[in-house]
Write a structure and sequence with these properties.
Length: 638
């Protein structure tokens, strides 16, 4: 039926309201996919939402929605939800006939005052946490609700999302590739997914169905509205839908999910096996959204509400595809306080049973003691940026340190935040500004060029390349070590290209066998000679490279994916922690400094280094240095 023929005007809505409920009010249109919705303002403080169905709507389906709202009101005492208003004869659902003689169903609900999510700016982590928290409370309140209409065919159910495969022809080639990728991902795991926990869930926490408090500072999500899409499905789908819409218009979409998941988990604890499917569930909700938008452009071109999420949904899908599903899962696990990588404990147990010597890695140097070298942002040893970028000077300082410790191997670096990564290639704009990769994931062994590197365990060559470029690996080789019930990888970076390319993918290098020789700059990526040694529990999609440095906001995941290589050697020198904590500094300040020098931030910033017009904290994050709007430039003019 033509959309304009079934549309209800505000004047018609006001008449229907009075005739059915004996309430006088002023109606204004609200968006809706199926129902025609109106906000009703009265002369009193009461406000309502009037919902008028399309012609010949299934009354049993509407009864499902009304009963569900009444169930939430009874079982979710902490939840703010729309309340059902009975008509003048005591019915929850009324029947009218429109001007064309079509039968329409009418419902009236209480209005929840606040702002819709889409109108709130900025959308910060605390707000996203409250979204997850309220969504989890609603899921908990809906446990045990039953209705025959809760199990039905429904295009917006993620579990039934593979109907989208029939509509691939409406997309461009680029769009089709993205949609097909996620459809295949979802279909490949469907058998395990089908066995996840199920219940009736809200199923539509989109950015126009989430109500936020009116406070401009520290606003909170207070309610979800529009229960029309509620359905019996996998519980994880409800969280996926909340994430899918709330991460739109954010630079780092994965990071944006974390507070939502944390909040949900506090209200409704998630299971580890559910988190394995969250990445695909988020993607498939977005796939449904873009497919429906494409179809609706053809079927109802005048209904703009049906197209409202199309552009941001595509943008989010493109960003989501760049994230490896396993890395997303490990991020979700961290958000729920599970160990990020499921095999981390297995690797630790293996390491505890198999202790190695440094000389096993470098047999030709015959040294096993380690001299720790601090190259962190806080280090005084590395000096000015111009110093550590001068490789001849840097090597001279290494040589001097080696002379002072002739019987030790100079090493260090695991989880060090470093300022020496001056390349901007891996900088990005996150949700809270510019971010740089600065947290080192391996151990650096500073040894002369041509030093031989040998295998600690039998391994299969899975990467052997010249990772060419400034501050890259140069000669890079990665070995896979298959154990009885898991596998892990070891990475060897900054070797000579010739020694690495002697190996081919699939080669086996036996324990004690020679892997490579250390390179010099420029072929080793423009570094002073050293080995970057790293352990990984997952290789992800990498075939010619692998991150050796991580972003700070991802460190809880990366330190699980890349456990400390020193677990294999147990060097006490590499375990010493000389970092002074913020709490210790604050305690010292309170003891020795007056109140005029009190701290102003909730979480104080510890500045440890200057870089031109910037000050840097202990994690390498840069802050523009301004006092009273006057820039203090030149802290490290050279």
């Amino acid at each position: 039926m033509e959309y304009n023929q079934i549309k209800i005007s505000t004047q018609q809505a006001e008449k229907i309201l009075f005739d059915t409920y004996k309430i006088k009010g002023i109606a204004s249109e609200l968006p809706g996919e199926l129902d025609f919705n109106f906000r009703i303002k009265t002369n009193t403080s009461e406000s309502y939402i009037l919902k008028i169905s399309r012609p010949n709507e299934d009354e049993n389906y509407l009864d499902f929605q009304q009963k569900l709202l009444q169930f939430v009101a009874e079982n979710g005492k902490e939840i703010m939800s729309p309340k059902v208003i009975l008509d003048k004869i005591g019915s929850a659902i009324s029947t009218i006939k429109d001007s064309f003689g079509n039968e329409r169903k009418v419902r009236l609900l209480t209005w929840i005052s606040g702002r819709v999510w889409s109108s709130v700016n900025p959308q910060l982590n605390d707000l996203r946490f409250s979204l997850g928290q309220e969504a989890g409370k609603l899921t908990a309140a809906l446990q045990g609700f039953k209705h025959e209409k809760s199990e039905r065919e429904f295009v917006w159910d993620v579990a039934q999302s593979l109907w989208t495969k029939k509509h691939l022809a409406i997309f461009s080639s680029e769009e089709k590739e993205i949609v097909t990728y996620f459809q295949e991902q979802f279909e490949n795991q469907k058998s395990d997914y089908n066995h996840l926990r199920k219940s009736v869930v809200h199923n539509d926490a989109n950015d126009n169905n989430v109500i936020v408090s009116k406070e401009l500072i520290n606003p909170k999500v207070i309610a979800a509205i529009d229960y029309g899409d509620a359905i019996y499905t996998q519980i994880i789908n409800d969280l996926a839908i909340a994430c899918a819409y709330a991460i739109m218009n954010h630079n780092d979409v994965l990071d944006a999910t974390i507070p939502i998941i944390k909040g949900y988990h506090t209200s409704f604890p998630l299971q580890e096996k559910e988190l394995k499917h969250l990445y695909n569930a988020i993607a498939m909700r977005l796939v449904i959204s873009v497919t429906k938008s494409a179809i609706n452009k053809i079927e109802e071109p005048n209904n703009q509400y049906l197209l409202i999420s199309e552009k941001p949904a595509w943008e989010t899908l493109k960003k989501w595809k760049t994230i490896h599903p396993d890395f997303a899962e490990y991020t979700f696990r961290t958000a729920c306080s599970f160990v990020a990588h499921p095999n981390e404990e297995k690797f630790k147990n293996l390491s505890a049973k198999n202790e190695f010597l440094v000389s096993d890695l470098f047999p030709t140097i015959n040294k096993n003691e380690v001299q720790h070298l601090d190259l962190s942002v806080s280090s005084k040893w590395i000096g000015h940026q111009e110093d550590f970028n001068n490789l001849d000077l840097f090597q001279f300082k290494i040589d001097q340190l080696q002379k002072e410790n002739p019987n030790k191997v100079i090493a260090g670096g695991y989880l060090e935040p470093r300022a020496i990564y001056t390349s901007t290639t891996y900088d990005k704009i996150g949700n809270y500004g510019k971010e740089s990769r600065s947290i080192h994931l391996g151990i650096d062994y500073w040894l002369p060029q041509k030093t031989h590197v040998h295998a600690l365990l039998d391994g299969e060559v899975v990467i052997a390349v010249n990772d060419f470029g400034d501050k890259e690996y140069g000669g890079l080789i990665v070995l896979k070590h298959q154990q009885k019930d898991f596998c892990f990888y070891t990475l060897y970076g900054h070797n000579t290209v010739e020694s690495v390319l002697k190996h081919t993918i699939g080669d086996t290098i036996l324990k004690g066998g020679k892997i490579a020789e250390l390179g010099n700059y420029p072929e080793n990526g423009n570094w002073a000679p050293h080995l970057h040694f790293q352990v990984m529990l997952s290789l992800f999609h990498y075939k010619t490279d692998y991150p050796g440095v991580a972003y700070l906001n991802q460190i809880d995941v990366w330190k699980s994916v890349c456990p400390n290589p020193n677990l294999l050697f147990n060097s006490e020198a590499l375990e010493k922690n000389t970092t002074i904590s913020n709490d210790e500094i604050i305690k010292y300040r309170k003891k020795h400094l007056g109140k005029s020098l009190s701290l102003q931030y909730k979480v104080p910033i510890k500045m440890v280094r200057g870089s031109g017009q910037y000050l840097m904290d202990q994690f390498g994050k840069k802050y523009l240095d301004t006092v009273n709007n006057v820039a203090h430039v030149g802290h490290e003019n050279y």
